[in-house]
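Minutes, project check-in

Agenda point 3 was the complex the collaborators sent over. CS summarized: two entities, 530 residues total, and the question is how they sit relative to each other. Sequences were read into the notes so everyone works from the same version.
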Amino acid sequence: MAGPFDPVQREIHQDWANREYIEVISSSIKKIADFLNSFDMSCRSRLATLNEKLTSLERRVEYIEARVSQKVVDGFERHLVDRLGV
Amino acid sequence: MPLILRLVEPVYPCRRPVPQGITAELECIMNCALAGIIRQIGSLGHHAEDLFASLACETDRLAQRMTRLDRRVDLLQPEVSRLDHAVEEVCLHDITRQVAFHADLTQDQQVVSQETMPAALMATFSRGDPPPFLRLLNPYRDDGKDCLCFYTDPSYFFHLWKENMLQDMEDVRKERRRQKKRSQGSRVGRVVGQVRRARNRKDEWERKKKGVEFVSREEGQEKGNDVQNNWTSGLVSSPQAISSPPCSPLPCPPEHEPPPPPIPPPPLPGEQYDLPPPPAFIDDEEYFPPPYPPPSLLPEIPSPPYAPLPPSGYPPPPPPPPPGNLGFSIPPPPPPPPLSQPSSKSAFPIPPPPPPPPLDYFPPAPAPQTPGPVSPQPAAPPLAGGRSDLLVAIRQGFQLKKVEEANRGGRAEPANDVAAILARRIAMEFSDSESSSDAEEWSD
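CS then shared the predicted structure for the full assembly.
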């Protein structure tokens, strides 16, 4: 029966330790990858919400500009001229 | 199939073949696994950089938009603060002259295409095998098509959809034209018998007075005489409509001279108009325009009791919606009927009666001037001034069309993308539903 200091046994113990080490590193890499994925998803979702809000704000500002602008009546005349080719 | 956007490689760091001649296998495997892990960390770092770059790009775009918006708000702020709700900015007269607000809506198109492909996916795509060099066979084809299109064509489905849509629109247009012709043809010689005539007890008793054998015969003829009876009963206003000369049960042939148009006396103020109900069928083109007095006759008529609208007070119809419109804005509302038919061929000097006549009094006018409900307004006195000329021209409509067509001819081919084709289809169906609803109104 081999003793505790048998070279083969020692090798196998070492191999187990290495594998555990590699497993720890691999699981850390997977955690980093998961974090990056979830960060990406949450960022994109927030950016999409921001995009929607911006779009609605832009439309409102456009409308307000049109209402406040003094060129409405002139625009009507110009519009007529364009349409009728007069 | 699930496309993996970013793959960290190597996926299995420990699964490497052991090279020949190695005695310490376990150590070899360990070393290879550790090397694989390092490569994985490197690949992960590369993907993280790509990910953050795309996020930064997106954020940058949004920041630019926000800056532009902020600048616009800053420009607006002083103008808005100057606004005073107590002061009337636009007088009531001008308020209707303003152009309706039309938002500049841009449609997102080609969202999933080569241009919008993420960089990581493009790298994966470029690693794939290219298609064979089928373009070399192009000179040998007779029909001139690209050989590669038979192998792979990204735009195949779009072209197929576009052809189907255009074909559908053509079919709908042809169908509408056919229906119009049919309805016009049927209006000329329309069988009124389909409508259940309201039975009058008096008529029945009168018929039975003559004799039972006359009842069934008269019934058949009456269905054809309905029109005549309605036409004459208004003048005569007696049940003797039955004794009118029996016409053929079918609608009168075109050569049958309609009775002379009943020209009631010019309206006197305070007089109750007892206009004849309109003919339920019209067999002559002359009767198509509604019987409004031509403008030349108007000065002879004293002002009616009801207050006519001043000519300047007529709201001009808003311009027709642009072709690219998705139908958000409604088509122009019908102008007041007196103004819609200034060039009436009819000799009826009848002003509009206070009680609105039945709707089938008016034939369906051409599309831009759909006659709406009759309003008890007199025909407008002749309009004067340049602006009114413009308004008249708008209402006539044909000039507008010419300009639009000229403009369209100058532009590039319009419908080559999904949004434009869809917009045209929706606009066509919207106008189709409108015209069909009008047709239903006018049909008996």
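Noted in discussion: Chain B touches chain A through 46 residues (CB under 8 Å).
Follow-up: revisit at the next meeting once the mutant set is ready.
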